[in-house]
Structures are given as structure tokens and as C-alpha cells.
């Protein structure tokens, strides 16, 4: 990693409880759903059978919940300067509503806690995340725990 890229990351010491971010939107496509079904092996009819889903409570195919979770992870990285993340260490998550083909989702995030660890070179940052569609409906929400590097000598 070049020094300039390394220096642009935000370390545990730089991140403040209460910081808020909002990502740009990303439209979920049929291709996303088909590729995710192949990647995950989840070919549930909710995601793959357009005719069956016409008569469902959703009226059409919906995205995999885990696809929405994965997309929000990417959107979070577009919402703020990259953290000096060492690991994704925890997740508490709720799937509140469907993500449909053509929905544009975005993430609102807030740093809700920071905790030092027994190792002086890292800490845990907890981020509350809310995934909204283009109608501002909450489709997913939860908290993630990220192990973030501390500055040398921090």
C-alpha cells in the first residue's frame, strides 16, 4: 500500500462517536439478483421465479436480504473516508422490508460507540446503519462492529 493511500485512512483515534454519514444511492438490478443467486447458491423462488412471484404479497421478485446487506457494506465505504479497518467483527441486523428490482438504496450511518481493546494497536467502532429505498422506507437496519487500527504511538 502506498504511503498516500495509507495516510488517507481514518484510524480509531480519528473517528468520533456521533459522526454521521450518508451514501449515494445504488439501483438494484435483475442482474445483481441473478449473479447473487449464482454466487450464493440461493435459488429460492422469491428471487428467481417471476411468474410465481406475481401472485405473492410482493407482486414481483425481490432481492436476497443478504444481497442488500452486501450492497450496503459497499455503500458505506462510499459514504466516508475509508477507515483503517482490520476486520469486520460483529453484526446485529434486521430485514424490515423488500428490496425490489429497480429500487435505489442508500445507507445512513452513525458511529454509536468506540471501545478500546486489550491490544493497544486497535479498537472496536460500532456503527448504526439504516438502509433506505428511494421512498425513504427503511428496508434494513442494524449495527456493525469494526476492528480499526490505531495510529502508531496512539
The ordered H/E elements are: HEEHHHHEEEE
Topology, number of strands: 6
Helix content: 25-40%
Distance from first to last alpha carbon: 21 Å
Please outline the major beta sheet: 6 strands, antiparallel
SSE class: alpha+beta
CATH superfamily, by name, is Hotdog Thioesterase
C-alpha Rg, in Å?
Answer: 18 Å
By CATH, the topology is Thiol Ester Dehydrase, Chain A
**Total of DSSP H or I helical runs spanning 4+ residues:** 5
How much of the sequence is in beta strands?
25-35%
How many domains? 1
**Main CATH class:** Alpha Beta
CATH architecture field: Roll
Overall, the morphology is elongated
- The whole-number mean of residue pLDDT values reads 94
Runs in which pLDDT lies below 50 for 5 or more consecutive residues are: none
Give the oligomeric state: single chain
Task: Walk me through this protein's architecture.
With 154 residues, the chain is α+β, with helices and mostly antiparallel strands. It has a single domain (3-149), classed as Thiol Ester Dehydrase, Chain A. 26% of the residues lie in helices and 34% in strands. The protein has 5 helices and 6 strands. Strands 1, 2, 3, 4, 5 and 6 form a 6-stranded antiparallel beta sheet that branches. Strand 5 and strand 6 (138-149) form a beta hairpin. The chain starts with a helix and ends in a 5-residue tail after the last strand. The model has no long low-confidence stretch (mean pLDDT 94).
Amino acid at each position: 500500500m502506498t504511503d498516500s493511500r495509507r495516510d488517507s485512512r481514518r484510524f480509531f483515534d480519528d473517528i468520533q462517536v456521533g459522526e454521521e454519514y450518508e451514501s449515494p444511492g445504488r439501483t438494484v438490478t435483475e442482474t445483481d439478483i441473478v449473479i447473487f443467486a449464482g454466487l450464493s447458491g440461493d435459488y429460492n423462488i422469491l428471487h428467481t421465479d417471476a411468474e410465481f412471484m406475481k401472485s405473492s404479497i410482493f407482486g414481483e421478485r425481490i432481492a436476497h436480504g443478504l444481497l442488500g446487506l452486501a450492497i450496503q457494506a459497499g455503500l458505506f465505504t462510499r459514504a466516508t473516508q475509508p477507515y483503517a479497518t482490520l476486520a469486520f467483527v460483529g453484526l446485529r441486523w434486521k430485514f424490515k422490508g423488500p428490496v425490489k428490482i429497480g429500487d435505489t438504496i442508500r445507507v445512513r450511518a452513525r458511529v454509536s460507540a468506540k471501545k478500546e481493546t486489550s491490544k493497544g494497536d486497535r479498537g472496536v467502532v460500532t456503527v448504526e446503519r439504516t438502509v433506505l429505498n428511494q421512498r425513504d422506507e427503511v428496508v434494513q437496519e442494524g449495527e456493525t462492529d469494526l476492528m480499526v487500527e490505531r495510529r502508531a504511538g496512539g
